[in-house]
Write a structure and sequence with these properties.
It contains nine helices and eleven strands. Strands 5-4-6-7-3-8-9-10-11 form a nine-stranded mixed sheet, sandwiched between helices. A two-stranded antiparallel sheet has the order 1-2. By secondary structure, it is an alpha/beta fold. The chain has a single domain, classed as P-loop containing nucleotide triphosphate hydrolases (Rossmann fold), CATH 3.40.50.300.
């Protein structure tokens, strides 16, 4: 991340108040299991970037274009107007078409690397990197991260979401050393209430904000911060 990185909001005032925004440019990773809100959180970040005048790509391995836009709109993360204005491009990768192995992964990761190197927009979100990460070889992963670093070095941002335990511990340590910001998302029960928790494992550049926050995804309100005092009530 460049020393003169800006802090860009997420478009959610309560989230920004606690989180402190997102450094831009940067290489960001969100790790979380199914149901922890990482796809919605990544889309919320994208909405903040778009609201700040950025343009970007969302590469989704879990949805088709209209399905992705609809699902995010249902939780008040409405990216549709930016998509229609050409400010956002949705790129679906139908992972169900492939029998995944190291050879297929290497090919797909090379294509993704070339894609990131060719885009002229301000940010790229990959949601999720899990399938590619499951079979990735260390050399191929580091080549991809090097391209991401070049992209970030040109004043842009890459955000990757991934499920836990995808990478070997030694490979995960190398990955964490490459990224600028690393979040983990989880679900827990506090005082009988089920909430999601987002923790900042790594930040650079003096990013302010809390190290952990609890939240819920409300269909009528979107991402809603849940104070721990209320979680325990």
């Amino acid at each position: 991340m460049e020393g003169n990185a800006l802090i860009v909001g997420t478009g959610n005032e309560d989230l920004d108040r606690r989180l402190g925004g997102v450094p831009f440019p940067s290489l960001v990773m969100m790790e979380g299991d199914h149901g922890t809100g990482k796809s919605v959180m990544a889309a919320q970040f994208a909405l903040g970037f778009l609201s700040a005048g950025k343009t970007g790509h969302v590469i989704t391995t879990e949805h088709l274009t209209l399905d992705y836009l609809r699902k995010m709109r249902e939780v008040k993360v409405d990216l549709t107007r930016y998509f229609l204005r050409g400010k956002l491009r949705i790129v679906p990768i139908n992972t169900g078409r492939f029998t995944w192995n190291s050879s297929v992964t290497r090919t797909m990761l090379r294509l993704l690397t070339d894609y990131v190197s060719s885009v002229t927009t301000d940010f790229v979100v990959v949601d999720s990197f899990t399938v590619l990460g499951t079979f990735v070889e260390e050399r191929d992963l580091m080549d991809f991260l090097r391209q991401c670093r070049i992209f970030v070095g040109s004043g842009k941002l890459v955000l990757l979401t991934v499920h836990p335990k995808v990478f070997r511990e030694d490979l995960l340590s190398r990955l964490k050393s490459e990224v600028d910001v690393y979040y983990t998302l989880s679900s827990t029960t506090i005082g009988g209430r089920r909430v999601k928790v987002m923790e900042k494992v790594k930040t650079v550049g003096g990013l302010t904000g809390v190290d952990a926050l609890s939240f819920d995804v409300d269909p009528s309100l979107g991402i809603k911060i849940v104070p721990l005092s209320l979680s325990r009530a």
